[in-house]
Inverse folding.
């Protein structure tokens, strides 16, 4: 076995930040290597250096044993490196074959015209060689996200890549598509290709990789063989201390109904139906989970419930009263806490400090603003309490929200919403971007709220999270609530099928192919 | 780095500047403007012909002396506390200097009026609404004040008592009319999604024409050839009591303006309404999330902004003219620059308005005191305003197009601000 990539003491500094600190990384040819770490650990920066997007401040990149100095991705591509970014760079109306050859089209008539026929044939040959299931004539906009990803991989292979870098490749996929991707990995490595993929999910790295390198705070904290390590060991490497991985809810009898959604329909911002005829209820002391691939109507459903979107049909009742037309402010005043999906747009005012952000939503409540005048010293105490209890770092109440890392912003929002003393908590992706330690803490707090008899609506694209925390689990696909299942007696595969839009009772022959509508 | 990236980097740097940095930038800009202006003075002094050179540099004679021009400019704005003596040297003090002189009154008159319009624009800008219509709100507010005073004055006892009753009422009427006129584009924005920049600009013309028709056809002074209302009795206006040399400046109006500065600051920073307003201006989605009623806040903010503009009109009528007269000076438009200069901060409006006032009154002194033509003085004024306002303008632009500050884009995985992505 030879070395495909060797990064030697790479350090990358940005103004005020050391993104990579003296990182060594060795990747053997023909293996799958996972780069594991929290957000902000420096994984993407490191890979961008390998791909020629950044120049390292110190250190050298060796490819196939040769020291290399890439000025741009073009140099990296010449050296046989391909990178598939998190956001695909495909032209939607063009076909699969056209996208794959784009920029390197075979030509005819002395280079004046694209030889479409040869392009198509080359793409077919290429996908046959690696056992890819793609139709070269489909338009990109008509194929699922999983297929789009395979097109991206083919594009890199077409340009002669031997080393493939994938940045968080599983983020947008259903569990089935993830399996399919890992099968593609095996096929590629069998043919001598080398794969490096970035992830912050332990399970994936364990499952798909031969070797795992863990980055923490820009440093390489260890490279291990996947079959010689454990989830616990990896979690400890990532976080730097021992962590409890599996949230477990004690069985408990739910109380009265808190929220009831009946036949709710809503449109997205473009006026296209996004939620159709969704009904469910949540009771005191119950966590109701919603699973689904991002972009299947969860956001619009949650916005309708929290008062940010006017439903086009159906009704919502909260604590026994119809609130379908109630204002957002009255819902907040009535004890509805909401951890929004998009913390930069909604959850925080980026140019406000944490003192001001701490009262977002409470700016009219008697606690902070009796007689319309805000009591800033109370607001400051409040923000400092959240910072303290939810371990927001650095603990500066006067710093603008913008200056905090994503995970710390999230902790602050979670703290603010949990401290509202709510009756209903609507939590969308509450642990998105936070480290494992904070994730554990947020999960515990969610379960505490449940134990106190609060109702919780939990929306997450992390299946293990919704499955572990929920008492009942609804699965959404294409705006519909496919089914409500008992998460403890349902397998990940069954939920995955529902997420892909297949009802278990549907006849296998006329079932639609799994098409993710994730955007 | 490409030109676009360079430009973005500069915008980011400006957007991230602290308050102290911004004040320093403003001073540096002022110095730069003076230097550039000096070159222009020299160049135009070389092109012009004159009998005796005003100054000689490197053996070449120039008709205008930049040092003298600037000294006269600032000296004149303060009512000539120093005697300017050629070649550009200050004599310690002018024994005849009177702090309550005409020059200073002129400076403070402009300052006072611009405090009102500057505040008006600042309030709307802080709410994320680009109210370009302060001028129209001022025109109609002023007219309302003039007509109200004219019709109510005969019902009141003349003299101090009448003034004490009438003047506050007249200002309130001006504020109400200006506020309602501002609320129109606010409501159009909130309920019909009409861009407030366009509507407020158009409403400026409408206001000017309505006022013109009303005064020329119905409420004008029959004894006058000019389109204007009948002059108000002295007791119903704000007289320049403290400044006997004239200059149409009333210390009461300035005190009222300064009180409004504090009131607007209090409203913005200390009240729930101000929080709603600022949140809407900073990040409308977050405001919505926080339970702010966007439509109501839009209308209320525009009413408030219009009311401040209307009060500016009331003060112009009561303090400067004693009547309403067609051809209202562009105080509302200058208010936009004042507000940008002030970083849309109510306290910043005071020095910004003072700079404007100084330049305006100083230009008159230059015009009369030196041979420099008034067009050139206008250029110098424009340069100073342009230089000082530009950094703040680009700062606003930087925040408006929502540039991510440098460090976030690079510090996180995935490159998104405060990165997440499942």
């Amino acid at each position: 076995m030879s070395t495909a990539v060797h990064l030697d003491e790479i350090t990358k500094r940005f103004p005020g930040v050391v993104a990579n600190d003296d990182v060594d990384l060795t990747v053997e040819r023909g293996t799958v290597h996972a780069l594991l770490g929290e957000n902000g650990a420096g994984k993407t920066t490191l890979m961008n250096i390998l791909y020629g997007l950044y120049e390292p401040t110190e250190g050298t990149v060796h490819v196939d044993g040769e020291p290399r100095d890439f000025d741009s991705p073009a140099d990296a591509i010449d050296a046989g490196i391909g990178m598939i970014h998190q956001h695909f760079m495909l032209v939607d109306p063009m076909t699969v074959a056209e996208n794959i050859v784009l920029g390197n089209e075979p030509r005819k008539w002395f280079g004046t015209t694209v030889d479409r026929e040869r392009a198509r044939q080359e793409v077919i040959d290429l996908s046959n060689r690696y056992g890819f299931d793609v139709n070269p004539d489909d338009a990109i906009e008509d194929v699922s996200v999983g297929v789009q990803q395979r097109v991206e991989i083919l594009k890199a292979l077409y340009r002669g890549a031997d080393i493939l870098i994938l940045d968080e490749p599983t983020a947008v996929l259903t569990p089935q598509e993830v399996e399919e991707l890992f099968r593609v990995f095996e096929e590629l490595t069998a043919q001598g290709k080398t794969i490096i993929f970035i992830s912050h999910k332990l399970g994936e790295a364990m499952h798909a990789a031969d070797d795992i390198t863990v980055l923490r705070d820009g440093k390489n904290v260890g490279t291990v063989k996947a079959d010689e390590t454990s989830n616990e060991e990896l979690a400890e490497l990532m976080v730097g201390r021992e962590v409890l991985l599996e949230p477990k809810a004690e069985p408990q009898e739910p109380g009265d109904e808190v929220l009831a959604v009946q036949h709710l329909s809503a449109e997205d911002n473009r006026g296209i139906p996004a939620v159709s005829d969704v009904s469910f209820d949540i009771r005191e002391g119950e966590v109701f989970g919603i699973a689904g691939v991002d972009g299947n109507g969860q956001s619009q459903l949650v916005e309708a419930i929290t008062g940010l979107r006017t439903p086009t049909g159906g009704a919502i009742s909260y604590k026994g009263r119809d609130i379908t037309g109630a204002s957002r402010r009255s819902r907040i005043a009535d004890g509805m806490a909401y951890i929004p999906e998009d913390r930069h747009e909604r959850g925080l005012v980026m140019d406000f400090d944490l003192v001001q952000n701490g009262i977002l939503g409470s700016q009219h409540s008697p606690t902070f603003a009796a007689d319309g005048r805000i009591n800033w010293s109370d607001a400051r105490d409040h923000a400092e309490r959240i910072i303290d209890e939810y371990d927001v770092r650095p603990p500066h109440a006067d710093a603008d929200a913008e200056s905090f890392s994503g995970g710390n912003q999230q902790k602050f929002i979670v703290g603010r919403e949990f401290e509202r003393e709510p009756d209903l908590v609507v939590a969308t992706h509450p642990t998105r971007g936070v480290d494992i330690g904070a994730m554990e803490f947020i999960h515990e707090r969610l379960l505490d709220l449940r134990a106190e008899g609060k109702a919780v609506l939990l929306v997450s694209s992390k299946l293990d999270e919704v499955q572990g925390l929920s008492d009942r689990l609804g699965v959404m696909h294409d705006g519909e609530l496919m089914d409500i299942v008992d998460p403890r007696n349902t397998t990940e595969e069954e939920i995955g099928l529902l997420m892909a839009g297949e009802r278990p009772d549907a006849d296998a022959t006329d079932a639609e192919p799994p098409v993710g509508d994730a955007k | 780095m490409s030109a676009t990236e360079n430009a973005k980097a500069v915008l980011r740097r400006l957007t991230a500047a602290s308050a102290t940095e911004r004040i320093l930038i403003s001073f540096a800009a002022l110095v730069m403007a003076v230097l550039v202006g000096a070159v222009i003075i020299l160049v135009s002094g070389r092109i012009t012909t004159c009998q005796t050179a005003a100054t000689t540099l490197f053996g070449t004679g120039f008709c205008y002396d930049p040092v003298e021009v600037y000294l006269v400019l600032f000296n004149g704005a303060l009512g000539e506390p120093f005697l300017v003596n050629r070649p550009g040297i200050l004599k310690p003090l002018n024994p005849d200097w009177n702090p309550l002189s005409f020059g200073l009154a002129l400076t403070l008159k402009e300052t006072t009026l611009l405090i009102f319009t500057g505040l008006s624009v600042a309030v709307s800008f802080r709410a994320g609404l680009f109210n370009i219509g302060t001028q129209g709100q001022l025109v109609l507010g002023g007219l309302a004040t003039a007509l109200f005073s004219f019709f109510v004055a005969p019902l009141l006892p003349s003299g101090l008592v009448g003034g004490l009753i009438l003047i506050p009422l007249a200002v309130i009427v001006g504020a109400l009319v200006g506020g309602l006129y501002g609320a129109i584009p606010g409501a159009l924005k909130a309920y019909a999604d009409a861009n407030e920049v366009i509507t407020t600009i158009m409403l400026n013309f409408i206001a000017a024409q309505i006022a013109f028709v009303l005064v020329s056809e119905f409420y004008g002074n029959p004894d006058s050839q000019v389109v204007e209302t009948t002059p108000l009795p002295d007791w119903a206006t704000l007289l320049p009591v403290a400044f006997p040399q004239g200059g149409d400046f009333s210390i009461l109006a300035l005190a009222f303006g300064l009180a409004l500065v504090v009131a607007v600051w209090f409203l913005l920073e200390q009240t729930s309404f101000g929080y709603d307003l600022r949140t809407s201006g900073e990040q409308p989605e977050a405001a919505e999330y926080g339970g702010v009623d966007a439509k109501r806040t839009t209308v209320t903010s525009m009413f408030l902004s219009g009311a401040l503009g209307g009060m500016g009109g009331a003060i112009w009528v009561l303090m400067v003219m004693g009547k309403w007269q067609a051809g209202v000076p562009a105080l509302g438009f200058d208010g936009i620059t004042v507000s940008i200069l002030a970083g849309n901060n109510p306290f910043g409006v005071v020095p910004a308005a003072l700079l404007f006032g100084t330049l305006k009154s100083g230009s008159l002194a230059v015009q009369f005191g030196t041979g420099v033509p008034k067009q050139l003085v206008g250029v110098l004024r424009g340069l100073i305003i342009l230089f000082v306002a530009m950094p703040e303008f680009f700062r606003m632009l930087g925040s408006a197009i929502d540039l991510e500050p440098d460090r976030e884009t690079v510090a996180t995985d995935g490159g998104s601000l405060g990165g997440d992505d499942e």
